């Protein structure tokens, strides 16, 4: 419905929202779904009620008359009152009026007789939606009158009565007429006798390329309302073919024409939705991603050969190009390799910001248009040439090459010449400050940029008055505002930017007028207003706020205009500062070429206007900032030598600002550069570039750049982080060098030297004992051996010194790196410290045994650390606990490490209960229930249980923690009692167990009364945020979950705010793996937010809370508003599976049991037979996930948002799941969020490639079956999904230390299944053997299976594939292919449901 009319009224939105509120999407709870008559009546009643307060007495009278006439149909009135009462406030004016009509009937005017209405046969009814030359207001009023004129040939009694009552009112109020039209079209579409003709009329309208935008949007909104209403009524996606082939309306509507029209009028989400509906209609038996392949099905594509890739795109592909340009965030064409035509390559280049390729392709298209021959008509050829020229102009503008745009002759005046070319030329002229008289032929002076040029020309003329510059502006404002009516968000952004541009001109003229007034009054600071305005404009949005590179291009004209305004009226230094800031924004938005052009402009303006004729503090600072920005642009453009030449000179200049500098220039520079953070940024950044380029030694980089940067700005987080990162990288490189084959050979040579020296000394001793040898000969031999000994001793000394230097170098790097990371954590800046905390702990864990000084450093900073950054790593810290004594004779590095670890854990646990649960769980490490499988073979790590008990005992001594710890321990025992409460599995669906029958229930109630604690499955508290809500009470009974082998208990907990928390208490299940995986997901979300690329694509992983209680029990947060994809697609009925989407949309396909039986029949057969069997299953069952999105999210905006969320979540979870080896991804272990469209993975029992060890090994890296792909849309795994996969993999690779650091917990606290070790059991039975093994065996460092698992994770993060290391795109492409490969899927276990 929306806003299209010029005389929009605030009440119009209320009517629109109410109508949409009455249509609930399928799957949501609703009391009553109204039919078309009831909706029409509700909309009419609401609109007429609102118009009773209209300023016009005539309108008020017509509104009252309409209400009285509508009240004549008592049945419809009562139904409408009931419906509106469900969505409106009880005090709403409409409800009060309706109650008055119901309680005190008014004498209503009689309804017009249907005989009086114009009668026509069904064949004579023709919808005249196309009206030439009418504005929107006239068009919509005219159509409302003709609706009534159609009479009983279309309308039945109720609809005719509503129209007769409301059309007189609609003739006076356009917004009411529009909403009446939309609802009337909904009614007409549902009538068999009018639906087909209406669809044909809509198709005719949609096919017109010159249709009015407001009219088109009105009809598209009507079409959208029809879809929503029909979807709700039929409880499925509408239209869906072939089911809707008999529907008069949907069978006659051209969906592709509707999609094209939506694209033309700026509704790309509608366009994409209707395009996919069109493809589903044309290819009902093809998966969505197969419908757009060149030539259709794959067999036909093979017949076409390579030339099929270069065919001119069809209408659907061309439409997709347009939609991709309007939806840049969707990355629709990314990764699409099937279309190689120039137009497709151009669209991909433009969307990928490949400006050089865009320029080349635009030139190719212009050349092709110029050489067009044959049957092309002259006018068509000229139009093609004009479009190609405009495209080339647009490519030049994207690169900022405006001098090329304005350098030639003005566009010629011709019938085919578009005003767009002239507008682009005028834009280039005002950007370049060219104010000469420009001949403007025809009506081109009416364009927006022509008006801007005229206004700025007036400002640039010193003799002209300010009012002359404002003269063109009011008409421009009116034109822009008129163009904004009824537009979608994409076009609204452009209009909003244009309004801001005009506002900027007004702001400058106001400032100039104010300064002129002050000058006349001889006031001080006569240029203060302009200067203040310039300072405000210099504050540009941050990169996070800006969004994508495409968003920068949308808002860039505003900043370009402000730059030109400052060049006209502001002091030179103000223009210089603004251009520098704008260049930085352009560079950060991935437009370094444009940024470099701005810098060159700023530098030339400064020189030309003599801005630096006198060296001053301000000009020095401004020029230094300008040149640093220039260096950054050159670096981004791949010109490191030029960038470093500038940066090194800047760093040399700025280093004189450090404390103790006494050079002659120090005073000048220090006064000119008072921003120490900027100086530190330059010096540190230069050091970073030198380290990347490897153009200086480590000592030079550290001593001349990175360390001085920290001295310049001691409180700066970025220089210190860069120093820590550099030290860390050098440490990794040095350890890699010392572990290399070359270093091993060097070490072997050193050992050989020692052996040779020992042999020589032994030989000399032997000779001295030989009393029978010739003295002279003996003397010569001893002299020769002495010389060898001397040389070997020198060599051995050099080798020893080199080894000592290597060790000291590593020690110095490790110690310095830990210190710098600790400083980052101590200062606690606002940046994301997740990776800093992870690396700090990893280095401590790795080097504490070898270098005790590292532990000393950690212990010194522990009291100062901001613990919030360390809290997410509580599992990693707790896993390092060991049972050895930390006092008495044991004073070694291990004892110091344990003592420091104890102190840190006590500090963390004192902050809240988040750290207490892992400690209690670790203390319970030997509590394995007898019902647990292989419980007799489980060997607990008693050292860890004792260590955890030791820390808990220390906490118990702290008064502020004692009572809270007691409550947590009682809750732990209570939850364990629930987990292993005996139940009868065959009655799991009907069992309700009262909590009073569970052990420790009374203790829990008493403990919660004394010391309330937060709900363990609630989201973790935020540091500095509100306190967490505590447990108030448990619901009276718990139930048994319908699914799950271990029969999880479904319980409900109410917190102190009244909110209900649903939990699953699981026994016979090791949830430590789930907890650590959720911890990894949350930490990766922090990294995704911190990384610019992943933040731009809104990557995130859905998480939930998992709290392990012991090695075989735990609590899991219930994920609200979700269903498993198995329940959604297949259904709940395990015998027949009749309630899933597959049965609903494709009832003739095989059901789930048929597919499984067919695959079971070939289980154990050859791969070829299994592959053929699955291919046959694919023929018998088709994907329907895309239809599920259409059903649950019928609104184009909701559908588009849900599809984006789905693609992002599938991509992120697939890449992370692949890296950690997540298996068992059957349809009941993946949830679908019914509100957002995201997927949520649950049950992490099979990670680290455990699925490959099953009796039927898993062979795919993640779940990407046909239904999963269908949910991604018509481009399948290309587009947004592929982009998000690559971005996620890039972030995972760059965050490898974080991933390995988090999963390293399993080495030191092995999983239950990994602890089932017969050798460990044998050692446990022999204390001496156990102690000896603990000292000497590699198993003392953890479980060997965990180590191998981590090596596999590390290999994936390195992109290892066989003997090669793949780049990110190739790596992602390979795993996607493996996940979809039918030869892999056919050998999966049948319960995995690879056909779904």
UniProtKB/TrEMBL annotation:
<dbReference type="GO" id="GO:0005524">
    <property type="term" value="F:ATP binding"/>
</dbReference>
<dbReference type="Pfam" id="PF00454">
    <property type="entry name" value="PI3_PI4_kinase"/>
</dbReference>
<keyword id="KW-0175">Coiled coil</keyword>
<dbReference type="GO" id="GO:0004674">
    <property type="term" value="F:protein serine/threonine kinase activity"/>
</dbReference>
<feature type="domain" description="PI3K/PI4K catalytic">
    <location>
        <begin position="1035"/>
        <end position="1358"/>
    </location>
</feature>
<keyword id="KW-0539">Nucleus</keyword>
<dbReference type="GO" id="GO:0006281">
    <property type="term" value="P:DNA repair"/>
</dbReference>
<feature type="domain" description="FATC">
    <location>
        <begin position="1364"/>
        <end position="1396"/>
    </location>
</feature>
<dbReference type="InterPro" id="IPR003152">
    <property type="entry name" value="FATC_dom"/>
</dbReference>
<dbReference type="Pfam" id="PF02260">
    <property type="entry name" value="FATC"/>
</dbReference>
<keyword id="KW-0418">Kinase</keyword>
<feature type="region of interest" description="Disordered">
    <location>
        <begin position="1322"/>
        <end position="1344"/>
    </location>
</feature>
<keyword id="KW-0808">Transferase</keyword>
<dbReference type="InterPro" id="IPR018936">
    <property type="entry name" value="PI3/4_kinase_CS"/>
</dbReference>
<keyword id="KW-0227">DNA damage</keyword>
<feature type="coiled-coil region">
    <location>
        <begin position="743"/>
        <end position="802"/>
    </location>
</feature>
<keyword id="KW-0547">Nucleotide-binding</keyword>
<feature type="compositionally biased region" description="Polar residues">
    <location>
        <begin position="1322"/>
        <end position="1336"/>
    </location>
</feature>
<dbReference type="InterPro" id="IPR038980">
    <property type="entry name" value="ATM_plant"/>
</dbReference>
<dbReference type="InterPro" id="IPR044107">
    <property type="entry name" value="PIKKc_ATM"/>
</dbReference>
<protein>
    <recommendedName>
        <fullName>non-specific serine/threonine protein kinase</fullName>
        <ecNumber>2.7.11.1</ecNumber>
    </recommendedName>
</protein>
<dbReference type="InterPro" id="IPR036940">
    <property type="entry name" value="PI3/4_kinase_cat_sf"/>
</dbReference>
<dbReference type="InterPro" id="IPR000403">
    <property type="entry name" value="PI3/4_kinase_cat_dom"/>
</dbReference>
<dbReference type="InterPro" id="IPR011009">
    <property type="entry name" value="Kinase-like_dom_sf"/>
</dbReference>
<keyword id="KW-0067">ATP-binding</keyword>
<dbReference type="GO" id="GO:0005634">
    <property type="term" value="C:nucleus"/>
</dbReference>
């Amino acid at each position: 419905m929306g806003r299209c009319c010029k005389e929009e009224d605030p009440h119009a939105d209320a009517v629109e929202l109410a109508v949409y509120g009455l249509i609930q999407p399928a799957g949501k709870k609703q009391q009553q779904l109204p039919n078309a008559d009831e909706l029409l009546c509700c909309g009419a009643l609401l609109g007429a009620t609102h118009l009773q307060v209209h300023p016009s007495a005539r309108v008020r009278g017509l509104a009252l008359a309409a209400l009285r006439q509508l009240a004549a149909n008592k049945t419809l009135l009562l139904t409408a009152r009931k419906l509106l009462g469900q969505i409106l406030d009880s005090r709403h004016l409409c409800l009060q009026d309706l109650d008055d009509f119901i309680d005190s009937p008014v004498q209503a005017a009689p309804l017009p007789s249907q005989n009086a209405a114009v009668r026509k046969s069904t064949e004579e009814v023709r919808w005249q939606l196309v009206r030439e030359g009418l504005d929107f207001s006239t068009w919509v009023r005219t159509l409302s009158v003709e609706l009534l004129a159609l009479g009983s040939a279309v309308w039945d009694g109720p609809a005719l009565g509503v129209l007769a009552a409301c059309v007189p009112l609609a003739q006076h109020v356009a917004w009411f007429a529009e909403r009446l039209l939309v609802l009337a079209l909904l009614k007409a579409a549902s009538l068999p006798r009018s639906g087909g003709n209406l669809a044909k009329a809509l198709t005719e309208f949609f096919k017109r390329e010159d249709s009015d935008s407001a009219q088109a949007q009105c009809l598209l909104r009507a079409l959208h309302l029809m879809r929503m209403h029909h979807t709700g009524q039929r409880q499925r996606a509408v239209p869906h073919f072939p089911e809707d082939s008999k529907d008069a309306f949907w069978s006659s509507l051209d969906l592709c024409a509707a999609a094209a029209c939506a694209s033309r009028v700026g509704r790309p989400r509608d366009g994409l939705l209707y395009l996919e509906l069109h493809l589903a209609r044309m290819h009902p038996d093809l998966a969505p991603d197969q419908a757009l392949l060149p030539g259709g099905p794959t067999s036909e594509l093979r017949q076409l050969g390579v030339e099929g890739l270069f065919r001119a795109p069809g209408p659907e592909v061309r439409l997709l190009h347009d939609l991709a340009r309007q939806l840049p965030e969707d990355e629709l064409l990314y990764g699409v390799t099937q279309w190689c035509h120039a137009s497709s390559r151009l669209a991909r280049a433009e969307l990928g910001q490949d400006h050089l390729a865009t320029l080349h392709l635009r030139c190719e298209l212009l050349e092709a248009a110029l050489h067009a021959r044959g049957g092309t008509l002259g006018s068509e050829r000229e139009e093609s040439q004009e479009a190609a020229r405009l495209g080339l102009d647009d490519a030049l503008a994207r690169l900022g090459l405006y001098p090329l745009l304005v350098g030639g002759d003005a566009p010629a005046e011709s019938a085919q010449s578009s005003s767009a070319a002239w507008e682009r030329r005028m834009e280039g002229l005002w950007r370049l400050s060219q104010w000469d008289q420009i001949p403007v032929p025809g009506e081109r002076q009416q364009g927006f940029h022509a008006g801007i040029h005229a206004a700025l020309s007036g400002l640039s003329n010193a003799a002209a008055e300010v009012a002359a510059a404002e003269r063109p502006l009011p008409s421009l404002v009116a034109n822009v505002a008129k163009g904004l009516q009824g537009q979608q968000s994409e076009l609204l952004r452009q209009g909003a930017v244009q309004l801001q541009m005009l506002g900027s001109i007004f702001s400058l003229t106001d400032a100039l007028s104010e300064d002129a007034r002050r000058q006349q009054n001889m006031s001080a600071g006569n240029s203060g207003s302009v200067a203040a305005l310039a300072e405000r404009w210099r504050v540009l949005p941050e990169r996070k706020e800006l969004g994508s590179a495409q968003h920068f291009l949308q808002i860039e004209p505003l900043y370009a205009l402000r730059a030109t305004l400052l060049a006209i009226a502001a002091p030179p230094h103000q223009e210089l500062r603004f251009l520098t800031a704008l260049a930085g924004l352009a560079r950060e938005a991935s437009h370094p070429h444009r940024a470099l052009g701005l810098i060159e402009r700023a530098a030339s303006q400064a020189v030309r206007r003599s801005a630096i004729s006198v060296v001053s503090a301000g000009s020095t600072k401004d020029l230094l900032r300008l040149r640093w920005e220039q260096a950054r642009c050159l670096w981004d453009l791949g010109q490191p030598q030029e960038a470093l030449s500038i940066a090194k000179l800047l760093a040399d200049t700025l280093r004189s600002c450090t404390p103790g500098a006494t050079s002659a220039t120090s005073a000048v520079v220090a006064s000119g550069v008072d921003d120490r953070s900027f100086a530190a940024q330059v010096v540190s950044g230069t050091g970073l570039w030198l380290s990347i380029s490897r153009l200086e030694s480590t000592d030079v980089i550290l001593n001349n750049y990175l360390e001085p940067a920290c001295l310049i700005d001691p409180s700066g987080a970025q220089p210190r982080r860069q120093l820590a990162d550099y030290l860390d990288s050098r440490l990794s490189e040095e350890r890699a060098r010392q572990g290399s084959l070359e270093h091993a050979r060097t070490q072997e040579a050193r050992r050989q030297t020692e052996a040779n020296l020992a042999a020589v000394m032994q030989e000399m001793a032997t000779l001295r004992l030989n009393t029978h040898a010739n003295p002279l000969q003996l003397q010569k031999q001893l002299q020769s051996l002495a010389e060898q000994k001397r040389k070997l001793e020198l060599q051995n000394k050099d080798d020893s010194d080199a080894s000592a230097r290597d060790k000291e170098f590593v020690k110095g790097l490790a110690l310095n790196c830990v210190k710098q990371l600790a400083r980052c954590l101590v200062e606690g800046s606002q940046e994301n410290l997740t990776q800093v905390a992870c690396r700090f702990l990893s280095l401590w864990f790795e080097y504490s045994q070898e270098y005790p000084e590292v532990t000393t450093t950690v212990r010194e900073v522990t009291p100062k650390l901001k613990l919030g950054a360390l809290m997410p790593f509580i599992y990693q810290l707790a896993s390092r606990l060991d049972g050895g004594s930390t006092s008495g004779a044991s004073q070694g590095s291990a004892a110091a490490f344990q003592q420091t670890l104890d102190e840190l854990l006590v500090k963390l646990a004192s902050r809240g209960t988040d750290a207490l649960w892992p400690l209690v769980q670790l203390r319970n490490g030997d509590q394995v229930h007898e019902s647990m499988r292989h419980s007799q073979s489980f060997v607990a790590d008693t050292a860890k249980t004792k260590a955890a008990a030791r820390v808990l005992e220390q906490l118990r001594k702290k008064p502020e923690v004692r009572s809270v710890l007691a409550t947590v321990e009682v809750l732990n025992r209570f939850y364990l009692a629930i987990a292993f409460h005996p139940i009868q599995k065959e009655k799991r669906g009907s069992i309700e167990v009262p909590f009073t029958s569970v052990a420790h229930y009374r203790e829990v109630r008493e403990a919660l009364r004394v010391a309330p604690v937060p709900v363990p499955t609630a989201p973790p508290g935020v540091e500095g945020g509100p306190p967490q809500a505590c447990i108030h009470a448990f619901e009276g009974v718990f139930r048994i979950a319908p699914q799950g082998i271990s029969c999880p208990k479904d319980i409900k907990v109410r917190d102190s705010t009244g909110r209900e928390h649903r939990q699953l208490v699981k026994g016979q299940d090791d949830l430590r793996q789930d907890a650590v995986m959720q911890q990894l997901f949350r930490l990766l979300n922090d990294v995704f937010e911190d990384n610019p690329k992943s933040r731009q694509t809104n990557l995130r992983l859905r998480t939930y809370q998992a709290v392990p209680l012991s090695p075989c029990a735990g609590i899991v947060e219930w994920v609200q508003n979700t269903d498993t994809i198995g329940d959604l697609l297949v259904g709940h009925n395990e015998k027949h599976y009749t309630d899933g989407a597959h049965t609903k949309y494709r009832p003739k396909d095989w059901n789930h049991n048929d597919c499984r039986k067919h695959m079971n029949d070939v289980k154990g057969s050859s791969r070829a037979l299994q592959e053929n069997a699955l291919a046959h299953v694919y023929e018998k069952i088709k994907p329907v996930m895309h239809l599920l999105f259409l059903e649950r999210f019928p609104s184009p905006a909701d559908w588009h948002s849900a599809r984006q969320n789905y693609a992002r979540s599938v991509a992120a979870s697939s890449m992370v799941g692949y890296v950690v080896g997540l298996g068992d991804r059957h349809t009941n272990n993946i949830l679908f969020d019914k509100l957002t469209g995201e997927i949520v993975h649950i049950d992490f029992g099979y990670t680290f490639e455990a699925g490959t060890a099953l009796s039927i090994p898993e062979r795919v890296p993640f779940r990407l079956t046909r239904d999963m792909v269908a949910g991604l849309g018509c481009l399948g795994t290309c587009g947004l999904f592929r982009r998000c996969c690559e971005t996620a993999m890039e972030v995972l690779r760059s965050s490898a230390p974080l991933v390995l650091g988090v999963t390293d917990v399993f080495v030191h606290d092995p999983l239950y299944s990994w602890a089932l070790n017969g050798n460990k059991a044998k050692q446990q039975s022999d204390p001496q053997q156990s102690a000896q093994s603990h000292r000497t065996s590699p198993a003392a460092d953890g479980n060997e299976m965990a180590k191998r698992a981590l090596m596999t994770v590390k290999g994936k993060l390195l992109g290892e594939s066989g003997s090669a290391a793949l780049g990110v795109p190739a790596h992602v492409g390979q795993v996607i292919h493996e996940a979809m490969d039918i030869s892999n899927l056919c050998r999966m276990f049948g319960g995995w449901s690879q056909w779904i």
